[in-house]
Design goal:
The structure holds two protein chains of two kinds. Chain A is an alpha+beta fold. Chain A is built from 15 helices and 19 strands. In chain A, helix 9 runs antiparallel to helix 11. Chain B is globular, with a radius of gyration of 24 Å. Classes of the chains: A alpha+beta, B mainly alpha.
């Protein structure tokens, strides 16, 4: 105990010694597991890309570590009382990395580029409710919506502003990124590294502190682990829980953690027996021991959770609001019997072989469900096959990992609305549809809170998804890395405030 | 010899044609719509967007037309463009190939050069304590996969010599010493299994030959043990060795792919793995075709060497 006290004291003094005023300079050596497939922010779908380009590009808004929407390239905005017109006042004196001045026409051009079907942008559908965008001055932009859309400001954080002239003159955004962010693109040696340099004209005074970010591409987890232990790398963003556990006691290494927005789930096909019966879906929820999943799959680094991440404070209902989250195999059996399956049910769980937590979760679930009469067979698939079956709703059930969003609408609308773009479960419920539409169009936060509270209870026990665990999001850094803050969205926004203590 | 070489070259062309067709078809038989998979599990893509992308990549054309376009391109030396970055595939390959060839060649040379003395010595000193140790190491070398050895080397070097640059890559022109330091462990990890396999093979072949009548005759003539060994036994023992080296060279190339992954080296292996993960069709086709061509070509060289070492072969 006393030894512990001394250690704590030493750690405290140590951290005080580090916590000096920020110093300028140095290259932050970052190790990431995979190479981006290209740098164009409007067509990227992979985290590997966002981790890099998030430092190069900015949106009109940004989402901070507490998931609050903050001004970025827009200095301020006004929303009309009917919620249909957003007027943005843009920051003045901003230049792109190629020296072009940033103005309203870049915003309009970026938006139109995303919306152009030829671009094939995955973010396009987030802006379906935008009717028109126009520049009403050199530094003023107006977005006209066809319906009020509350998550609009947080969605705008995902719309990277690219320089209109550069794109119009044939600039290749896939290979040469040009943004307004704290770091500018310098060099990309495929499968080796991507080097970003400090943007000397960045509008936030004195930022960034670092001279450069070097994203070393290191596919092997064991190599990344040795690399950070030996000091070859300074920073491993968004690492697996198993790697975090190994690094927990590594000397010279510290872990950042925050609540992840992504969650593991068991999805059910509501057009197939037995999951067409809501009672069966409820029974399945009763059969799951989520706390045991947290221990077995996430090594204790996570929390059981419902339709919204606990990181969405003020929105996510506590799990105590969902009766079926109290593990009760006897009750599950009873519900199965009532649903007409006294002898239990047989079904198949599809999983993606490349995501370890998902495969582990499926195996633990298999054992848990068996106690309540659910006899699950696990089928591990390769990515291509999995995506295909998933898209075509060709499954009884699947175990997977879903990404999250800073707004409840991002979690729920496309997943649970009738015909929603990720509603592969074929779920359709008139009341849920009604609530989802009210939730995204209501302009009062209090009204929205009530709507999402009702939706969560309804979806948690009888919806097509058994929500399982929200993991802890870890990043690892050397002790002299200072000023970084992890963000639940996995963005590395705060690398602009990071410095290397000497 | 010339006729034989020409005949083999013609075979090579036919084989490569077959391979090109197979590679082209096989990648399209992998389950899953390429365009959908490229975009990942992100269904915020409407069907018309999918269609637009398909058109951009030429995947909406009939299969035969796609193949013809690709094949005629390849014959002109144009392997097409990478789907995502738009970079010419020929350039991407030329940027990566030298490193993989370097690793493969260094491993091959190291493995072969060390396996000959070790093989001879263990044949001479069979069943001695030293030979048991060599045998144990050899069995370990054959059974332990390179990627595991690689990880072990990285870990050990960090524990024993934390300053040693074991991870990452530096171009030769930039820092020759750093370049070779970083290739040390990958080459060791790759050559150890080869070394183990070859020395065991050489030992058993030598033991077999040394018990033959003509060796007894040679010894009876009063030739020195050196001459018996080098002129009579070794030359014959090298024939199976050459075959195995040829086959192994192909596998080394495959092993290099795995080792590149572990040591974060930007060679062909990483290029291929990345291309498959991204369903970058033209890039997968181009790289696989090239690797297969390399494999087939090495086989040709082996057969020619074989014909040279054992003149009876070409008449067979």
């Amino acid at each position: 105990m006393r030894r512990m006290g001394w250690l704590l004291l030493a750690a405290l003094i140590g951290s005080l010694a580090w916590a000096q005023t920020p110093v300028r300079g140095g290259t932050l050596q970052i190790a990431v597991d995979s190479s981006p497939a290209g740098l164009d922010p409007h067509v990227a779908t992979a985290f590997a890309t966002f981790v890099v380009i998030g430092n190069i590009y900015e949106g009109l808004t940004e989402v901070d570590e507490g998931l609050r929407v903050r001004p970025a390239l827009a200095e301020s905005w006004k929303v009309s009382p009917d919620g249909l017109t957003y007027t943005f006042k843009l920051r003045s004196g901003v230049t792109f990395h190629n020296g072009q001045a940033f103005s309203a026409k870049d915003v309009v051009a970026s938006f139109n580029r995303v919306r152009d079907p030829k671009t094939g942008s995955p973010v396009a559908s987030r802006f379906n409710l935008v009717k028109e965008v126009r520049a009403t001055g050199p530094l003023e932009v107006v977005f006209e919506l066809s319906q009020p859309f509350s998550p609009f400001l947080s969605e705008l954080a995902g719309l990277s502003i690219v320089p209109a002239e550069y794109v119009a003159s044939g600039g290749d955004l896939q290979r040469r990124a040009v943004g307004t962010g704290p770091f500018q693109f310098k060099e990309w040696v495929p499968d080796t590294y991507i080097l970003l340099e400090r943007n000397p004209r960045y509008y936030r005074q004195g930022r960034p502190y670092l001279d450069a970010l070097k994203f070393n591409i290191v596919p092997d987890a064991a190599t990344r682990q040795v690399g950070i232990s030996s000091g070859t790398y300074h920073f491993l963003p968004n690492i697996d829980p198993s790697l975090a556990v190994t690094l927990r006691n590594a000397p010279g290494v510290k872990l950042y953690q925050t609540q992840d927005l992504a969650y593991s789930l068991l999805g059910m096909n509501v057009t197939r027996k037995p999951f067409d019966n809501p009672k069966v879906r409820e029974a399945l929820n009763y059969a799951i021991d989520r706390k045991a999943l947290v221990q077995a799959v996430y090594f204790g680094n996570g929390v059981p959770g419902g339709p919204l991440s606990p990181a969405l404070k003020g929105w996510a209902s506590p799990t105590s609001a969902f009766p079926c989250y109290n593990t009760n195999p006897a009750k599950a059996r009873e519900l199965l019997r009532q649903a007409g399956y006294p002898g239990g049910v047989d079904f198949t769980i599809l999983t993606l072989g490349s995501v370890k937590t998902v495969v582990d979760a499926a195996q633990v679930l298999q054992a848990q469900l068996a106690a309540a009469g659910f006899r699950a067979k696990i089928e591990i698939l390769e990515l291509g096959k999995f995506v295909q079956e998933w898209r075509n709703s060709n499954f009884d059930a699947f175990a997977s990992l879903n990404g999250g969003s800073a707004d409840p609408d991002g979690y729920l609308y496309r997943t649970f609305s009738t015909g929603g773009s990720t509603n592969v479960f074929k779920y359709s419920d008139a009341r849920v549809d009604q609530l989802l539409n009210q939730g995204r169009t209501a302009t009062s936060a209090d009204v929205r809170r009530k709507i999402y509270a009702e939706l969560q209870v309804k979806l948690a026990c009888q919806g097509p998804i058994a929500h399982l665990v929200y993991g802890t999001l870890f990043s690892a850094a050397r002790e002299n890395v200072q000023g970084f803050k992890p963000v639940p969205t996995r963005s590395l926004l705060y690398l602009r405030d990071t410095w290397l203590a000497r | 010899m010339l006729a034989y070489t020409l005949r083999r070259l013609l075979d090579l062309v036919l084989v490569l044609f077959g391979v090109s067709l197979l590679v082209f078809l096989m990648i399209r038989l992998i389950p899953g719509d390429a365009v959908q998979i490229m975009l990942g599990a992100n269904t915020e893509i409407t069907p018309d967007r999918l269609e637009a992308l398909r058109e951009k990549l030429g995947l909406n054309k009939p299969l035969l037309v796609q193949y013809w376009d690709w094949l005629t391109g390849v014959l002109r030396g144009d392997l097409g463009q990478s789907v995502w970055t738009g970079a010419p595939i020929r350039e991407e390959i030329l940027a990566r190939l030298p490193l993989t060839l370097e690793i493969t060649l260094l491993s091959l040379v190291l493995g072969v050069l060390l396996s000959i003395p070790i093989g001879i010595l263990s044949a001479y000193w069979r069943n001695s304590t030293g030979e048991y140790v060599v045998r144990l190491v050899a069995i370990a070398g054959v059974t332990v996969p390179s990627f595991w050895l690689g990880t072990l080397f990285i870990y050990l070097s960090y524990k024993l010599w934390p300053g040693f640059p074991a991870i990452g890559y530096v171009p030769l022109a930039e820092d020759p010493a750093g370049h070779f330091a970083r290739l040390l462990f990958p080459v060791l990890a790759l050559s150890l299994p080869l070394l183990a396999g070859l020395s065991r093979l050489l030992r058993s072949t030598l033991l077999d030959i040394l018990s033959q009548d003509y060796i007894r005759t040679a010894r009876a003539k009063g030739l020195s043990e050196r001459i018996v060994m080098y002129k009579h036994a070794l030359r014959n023992a090298l024939i199976p060795l050459v075959t195995v080296v040829g086959i192994q060279a192909g596998y080394l190339f495959g092993g290099a792919i795995v080792v590149e992954q572990v040591f974060a080296l930007p060679g062909m292996g990483r290029l291929i793995v990345g291309a498959i993960n991204e369903r970058n069709y033209p890039l997968v086709q181009g790289t696989i075709l090239l690797v297969t061509a390399g494999f087939v070509f090495i086989n040709l060289l082996v057969d020619l060497a074989y014909a040279y070492l054992d003149p009876r072969v070409e008449y067979a």
